[in-house]
Amino acid sequence: MSAKQINPFLKSALEIGPIIVFFAAYLLLKDRVFTIGGTDYQGFILVTAGFIPLMLVCTAALWKLTGHLSPMQIVTAVLIVVFGGLSVWLNDERFFKMKPTLIYLMFGVALGIGLLRGESYLRKVMEGLMPLRHEGWMILTKRVTALFFGLALLNEVIWRTMSTETWVYFKTFGLTAAVFLFFMTQGSLFKRYGLEQEGE
What we know:
It comes from Salipiger bermudensis (strain DSM 26914 / JCM 13377 / KCTC 12554 / HTCC2601). By secondary structure, the protein is mainly alpha-helical. It folds into two domains: 1-91; 93-200. It has eight helices and two strands, in the order αββααααααα. Strands 1-2 form a two-stranded antiparallel ribbon. α2 (43-66) packs antiparallel against α3.
């Protein structure tokens, strides 16, 4: 079933809003320590605790308004609950920092399995946005698969070797910028394999 069309600004707010709120809350609380039930919690943990229900509410609102959620949105919500919950429960920020790694690895592996079968699972998700010939989808899928594995590795390097603040900036802006720049550099592929080039 295709998704219902909603106001694009509302859609963007529901998708990106929780990340912006997380970033702003982190900047506000990053240097504070909260004692709850005799246990000290860094600001990052409290912000993570608030991010989980906010993300779930926004995801539920998207589903209610559009009647559809992508596989990535569903998996992301599940991993936020699991790894965000572990970070809060165990008072250990490392679990939440692992989440992007697992998301990118899972989708990289899924796309790779499709490639081994001679299929583009990316096409099933994005065909309505970018009509391409089969050859174009296969090339784009190979590139996106490599991108996902690269981002998974990059996230691991950054959270394991740099400060929490650096990771938050990377998670909020770096990952989004990387995906945006990637698709900006695929113009020649879209022109070469776009169905519009074939004519009627």
